[in-house]
């Protein structure tokens, strides 16, 4: 019975000019991403109608620190502490990225779905403090926005069949960080004069 079905299908397949079903060898994941709204486009695909995160998996929250306002320096050779105002304002938004190891980025692409439908698209961090900087030291105010983090592949929907399908999925997963409104930590980052005051690598450990 099963054999009969397979036979019937193979006869049909060769008799009719069925649409040619392409395979992944015909294009790269980068081609697929580039066809998303906001992307540069790809010679392999028409522009996609939409790109969405497919069945994203929650991964641990990610807190990301940025400098708020300009660093202040007590680097003029004086021996007294100075009192300064530190801080400022910054708005951070939902980001969708691919791992650096994939060799291309997806900046500017519009990829819908995921936690952004439940959480905020952006969060504004704003605060100022008075701070005393010791001699030979510099300081910058930092804010760490906590983000809901999700990982998943991207579903790409086309208006016409592309390589035989209306829908393709990327094989590269993306990570989406969505700001959790109000979940922000503040700190003053003090460092030695002559170093990069805005190097926050000690805060943003990978
Ligand atoms: C990629 O995303 C899918 C969901 O679309 C998930 O099931 C899978 O575990 C993810 N793979 C990795 C390596 O994170």
Describe this structure in words.
The protein has 206 residues and is mostly beta strands. The protein has one domain. It has two helices and seven strands, in the order ααβββββββ. The chain has helices spanning 2-15, 29-34; strands at 50-74, 82-93, 95-98, 122-133, 137-162, 165-169, 174-192. The strands form two sheets. Strands 1, 3, 5, 6 and 7 form a five-stranded antiparallel beta sheet that branches. A hairpin with a 2-residue loop joins strand 5 (137-162) and strand 6. The protein is elongated and about 75 Å long. Residues 1-16 have low confidence and may be disordered. It binds 2-acetamido-2-deoxy-beta-D-glucopyranose. 2-acetamido-2-deoxy-beta-D-glucopyranose is lined by residues 54-55, 57, 151-153, 173.
Describe what is shown at a glance.
The chain has helices at residues 2-15, 29-34, and strands at residues 50-74, 82-93, 95-98, 122-133, 137-162, 165-169, 174-192. It is mainly β.
């Amino acid at each position: 019975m099963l054999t009969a079905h397979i036979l019937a299908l193979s006869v049909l397949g060769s008799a009719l000019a069925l649409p040619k079903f392409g395979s992944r060898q015909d294009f790269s994941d980068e081609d697929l991403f580039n066809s998303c709204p906001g992307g540069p486009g790809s010679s392999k695909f028409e522009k996609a109608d939409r790109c969405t995160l497919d069945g994203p998996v929650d991964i641990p929250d990610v807190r990301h620190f940025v400098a708020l306002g300009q660093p202040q320096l007590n680097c003029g050779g004086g021996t007294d502490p100075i009192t300064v105002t530190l801080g400022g304002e910054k708005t951070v938004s939902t980001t969708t990225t691919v791992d650096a190891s994939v060799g291309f980025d997806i900046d500017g692409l519009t990829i819908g779905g995921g936690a952004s439908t439940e959480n905020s698209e952006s969060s504004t961090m704003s605060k100022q403090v008075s701070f005393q900087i010791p001699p030979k030291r510099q300081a910058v105010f930092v804010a760490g926005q906590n983000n809901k983090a999700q990982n998943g592949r991207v579903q790409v929907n086309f208006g016409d069949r592309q390589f035989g399908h209306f829908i393709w999925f990327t094989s590269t997963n993306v990570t989406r960080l969505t700001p959790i409104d109000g979940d922000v930590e503040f700190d003053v980052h003090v460092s030695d004069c002559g170093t990069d005051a805005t190097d926050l690598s000690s805060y943003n450990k990978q």
